[in-house]
Amino acid sequence: MQEISKGANVSLTALSEDAGAVVVSLSWSSVSGAGDADVSVLLVDANGKVRSEDDFYFYNNPAAADGSVQLLGKTPTGNGDEDRIGVDLTAVPEGVERIVVAASQYGGARFGDLDDLRMTVADRSGEPLVGFSIHDAGVETAFIFGELYRRGEEWKFRAVGQGYETGLAGLATDFGIAVNEEAQEEGEPGAAGDGADTDAPAVVAMDKAPDAEPEPVAPAPMPASAPAPAPAEAVAVPAQTRGRGPRTTTTKKKVTLPRAAKSSLAENDSWRPARLFPVPTLKSDKEREVRATSVLLSVMAQVPEFGRRLTAAFGAPAGRMQTFAEVSLPHGDTPRRPDGVIRVERAGKLWTALLETKTNGNPLKPEQVQEYMDIAARRGYEAVITLSNDVALEGAPMVDVKIDGRRKHKVSLWHLSWAEVAHQAQMLIHHEGVGNAAHAWLLQELLEYLRHDQSGCHGFQNMGAAWVPVRKGIEDETLASDDPRAVEVVESWERLIRQVCLRLGGELGQKALPVQRVRRGSDQRARRAAAAERLCLDGRLTAELRIDGTNSVIAVTADLRTGKVRTCVDVPAPEGSYPLTTVKRLVRLLAEAPADLHVETLVEAGNGPRGTLERLRPEPGDLLPKGGAAPTGFRLSLIKGMGSTRGNAESGFIRSVDEAVSRFHQGVVAHLGPVEARAGRRG
Fold first, then answer.
1. Interatomic CA distance for residues 422 and 446, integer angstroms
2. Which segments of the chain have a pLDDT < 50?
3. Exposed, middle or buried: residue 676 (CB in 10 Å: 0-12, 13-18, 19+)?
């Protein structure tokens, strides 16, 4: 990541080939833990003003209709908060020259009360590109952290660091927004008694008379089969949408569903809730494919946030979406019927993708995908999307197709995993929110469908035909170092780790990503070949997972010789702290961790003391190195038995790895709190 200073700028295109969409993060910390700020984004034209009030995004107007800007909400960090903003630069209207990213405080709070003010920009994959830290904050109550701006065909980032003592009102006025500072009437949204700060600006308006009536908002259409919106106690609204700052009467709060289910009115456990998408009647793979495709496409069209989330990565514009199932398209003497078609209209132009679906672990057929690529090229469609339980890997295409270079019209081939579909649904309904309660309910029904045993949409579930012979070859020490089946196992391992990241990220509401300690742009096939050679030599599969917004990196090692899965993380020792105080504090932090957790003290040279948490709890001093050496950190490890079969059954390898990571994060990493964790040594 490149660090820049105040006033400097850098080209995002030069830093990443995947900067068409970025995630902007604002972070801060507070000694008291009470510091807070609200993020706002302004889209500014060539005159330095917003074009209308719709170009101002804040907690009560968190997303642009065209998908160009979306406030993703706050994420707690070790001693503060991080606020994230998704920006799709390809969807930003042409009239917008700059995207200004700011934050504001209320109730007498000042930015000088916060520490570690920082802005970072990451690309679509989550790779941090550029960072900027603010060190001179004082009495300011609003701050422009930075801005994204156009230069020809590229986007650049400028570190601004400009503060306002007049708060959000002063900042907004500079960009052409008229702010009404008068106190709101009792009973209006945000008035005293509604939990709002009474010293905050009351109404933000653009080009309207002070007494103008707000424009009415038409309610979003609700499917006929959808229930009435849930009562207030059943709808959890993200905290960042409540009670501070400017308010508009033309925007709706995002809605999420509570995690805990309401108490059941059923007489006994044999009663099952009625589901919108039933699955027990499915008898064949064809039925599963047809049902799954239709269910997914219908929800994508009805829930704009969900449809946009799944298609944005494939180059689809933000616009009106329609979806179709089992469409017949001409192809020689026999028409072809792709499983689905997705069409998006924007500014009178159509973006079209054909969808080929597989469920229940069935593989994609290259010849079938090739036919759809040819049809798409002839008809001027933009993309073909394959959807299956498998997980795509960089540099390892799901299917091999031939691209006719003589054709002027190019068709993109993309892959989507059912695990990714479930992950995005979970992120929206439990963490980020959607437009209304009916949409949240639809996503919940989709998620229930995908999780059902009969749906066939369970993500990566098979380590492949090479798993058993490679595992036995390692156990018997008969596996040759150049056995090509080892590469297949390495690729399956990477797919498994990516799926584990999706599940973990969906639970936490944060992005979890595999860590690849290789140079950007390196040959992925050569990297996997080297990993396969190491597997043949030492019998180990290794990986690292990084949780977005934290420094926690979990190392995972599957030892095929011993049949054990090890998960570990390194915790640095605080600088300037007494060694005995440090080890006592660590043991207190791990009060709820599993008793079989292995703790090893790290020292500059040699090996430090080690033991299980059960033994160390009564005697934390046993972790102190002999001879008075100061510990540099601690390695925390959990070891569990490894499943042997290649599938996802109770005794399967896939299940054992997923459970190992889940247990380690819930039982260990989640308890570390403000302690920063690094990847443990894999071994």
1. 8
2. 181-252, 674-677, 679, 682-683
3. middle
